[in-house]
Amino acid sequence: MARKSGSSGIKTAKQLHETATVLFAKNGYAAVSMRQIAREVGVQAGALYLYTADKQSLLFDLLDEHMKDLLDAWEGRTTPHEITPIDQLERFVRFHIRFHLPRADEVFISYMELRNLTPENFEVIQNARRTYEAILHDILSAGQTDGTFKVSDTKVATYAIIAMLTGMNTWYRDEGRLSLDMIEEIYLDLVLSAAGATP
């Protein structure tokens, strides 16, 4: 993304990303115009092109930034040297929930707006998603190898577990009857059961 230099330019670029994320999640990528985004940011429509080449580039930047933040956050965790597949799976579940819940809009457009990427941009995001999916797949495969997990197909199990965890964003509310800690434990039990975990 081409950005105007200086603290004001950085602030505007950040505001552009935040505003586009909210508008794309609320109205859909196709229904949002650059003029509408500019109006919400508080700049002239032409000024947006100091920060992004076009709406397609803006969408790609949002999805790419989300995936990079996700992978960086996972890599930045401290993991004990000796850890069992069950421990690894528990860490993945808790990480996925805690990372994604505060980012409901980012998660929504990351799944719903993939179809609006150009083939080249789609492939970049898809490769990043495969990298993240491989983390869970490797955990399940290790557990399958040592007898900790029993699944008929580790790749399908990977997709199913990630879909289950990400789906929490569609219904969870802070004011619900169960705390996040309680729901996290329920989801952990569900995932362990889905993996056929043997203590």
Describe the protein.
There is one protein chain. The protein has 199 residues and is an all-alpha fold. It has helices at 7-27, 34-41, 55-75, 85-100, 104-112, 119-146, 154-166, 180-194. The chain has 2 domains: 1-53, Orthogonal Bundle (Arc Repressor Mutant, subunit A); 59-194, Tetracycline Repressor, domain 2 (Orthogonal Bundle). The protein has 8 helices and no strands. α4 (85-100) packs antiparallel against α6. The radius of gyration is 19 Å and the shape is elongated. The N and C termini lie far apart (48 Å).
Question: Which helices and strands, and how do they pair?
Answer:
Layout: H1 7-27, H2 34-41, H3 55-75, H4 85-100, H5 104-112, H6 119-146, H7 154-166, H8 180-194
Helix pairs in contact: 1-2, 1-5, 3-6, 4-6, 4-8, 6-7
Question: Tags for this entry?
Answer:
199 residues, mainly alpha, Arc Repressor Mutant, subunit A, Tetracycline Repressor, domain 2, 66% helix, 0% strand, disordered N terminus
Short description:
The chain has 199 residues and is mainly alpha-helical. 66% of the residues lie in helices and 0% in strands. It has 2 domains: 1-53, Arc Repressor Mutant, subunit A, CATH 1.10.10.60; 59-194, Tetracycline Repressor, domain 2 (Orthogonal Bundle).
CATH architecture of the largest domain: Orthogonal Bundle
Tell me roughly what share of residues is in helical segments. 55-70%
> Which overall shape is indicated by the principal axes computed on the Cα atoms?
elongated
Q: Say which CATH homologous superfamily of the largest domain is assigned.
A: Tetracycline Repressor, domain 2
What does the largest sheet look like? none
